[in-house]
Design goal:
The protein is mostly helical. The chain folds into 3 domains: 184 residues, Hypothetical protein af1432; 123 residues, no CATH class; 62 residues, no CATH class. The chain has 18 helices and no strands. The protein is globular and about 60 Å long. The chain starts with 28 loop residues before the first helix and ends in a 6-residue tail after the last helix.
Amino acid sequence: MSWAPVARVDRVPASTDRQGRAPAGVYTEADRQRWLDEAPKSEQRTPFERDRARILHSSALRRLGAKTQVLGPASDDFVRTRLTHTLEVAQVGRELGKALGCDPDVVDAACLAHDLGHPPFGHNGERALAEVSAGIGGFEGNAQTLRLLTRLEPKVTDPVTGRAVGLNLTRASLDASVKYPWTAPAAPLRPDGSRSVKFGVYADDAEVFAWLRQGAPDRVRCLEAQVMDLADDVSYSVHDVEDAVVGGRLDLEVLGDAETRVRVAGEVHAWYGNVVETGELLDAMVRLAATGSWVRGHDGSRRALAALKDMTSQLIGRFCGAAIEATRAVYGPGELTRYDAELVVPVPTLAEILALKGLAVTYVMAPREQEPLYRRQREIIADLVGVLADRAPVALETPFAADWEAAGDDAARLRVVVDQVASLTDVSAAEWHARMVHPPRR
């Protein structure tokens, strides 16, 4: 499928140096451009404020309220969903970005968008969709996010062709939402020589990707995207542990045991690779357990819940403060935006974040892999892709049926089916499966 911008003019900002670059901390006219030019409907808001509002009011964001974060939304009343996680990421990212001089609405928009492409059942569903779509370029939640922002989410259509262009965000906000700015074949190599499975764009979205990356260094994320990524890491590392403690799956006393710390470090390496050395992880766990806010003996009382909430707040402040201080030590004061700087996260801070992730893996995520429910979820996703591919376009929702009719070959049609399944919530995926795959007998 071809993407052709309409009535778009590349403009050089008025305030530039002799090489055509804008001064540090300045967002240029190119940063504010949209794939499809639009006349501003109001002078009351900046282009970036409009971007944030478009994501906030999107149907894709609302659907996150019924999508799994770590545990399913129906597992209890306390557990976080993708939506509540996203709102927490946005709050952390906005404050972190503001402290560095980024436009808060660019960072906020990127944080609100960062999980929009995730399918039903969280990473479990993502794995299932990756398997069924392996022959057409695979599935990746972050690449699906870009597809949704630039194609699938209904907001703006090309008046000439009638084609949907998604939310038609500015270049700066779109670029900030791209966590992995490369295709699957161009993914960077890991230290062990294997290629990363993470990527941010499918082949048939390459044209709009090239547009939003104009002027960007190859495979380098803008500062706002780096802020979004750290806010995501900080939020889910801290909050997954909080959810595990409240749910009775984890007692933070475990870090007092040396064998447990070694076990957690092993899980970190198994799930996230050798990002930091084992010794750094072990030291990080000792430091975390020694902080004054570390919770011991959680009994579910209001006093205990308040202490746990204080711990999460203290940890978020600890991690973000360390990154701000380290970044400022390298780049000095002033506003830092786009490609003026890279976010600096000290290795001890990174190790502490990974240690928290390791706790969640050890006590929540790894054990659930063996549960029949999680195998069943993957079966639901695979079954749905199969039955919808057989019954398309009739079985598809109206927008996806139109995409299927317009698709040029079987690969493109399968991608439409994957788009449809990815858009479903945990609840609707189960309901569709019950209705289409195992309908009740009459």
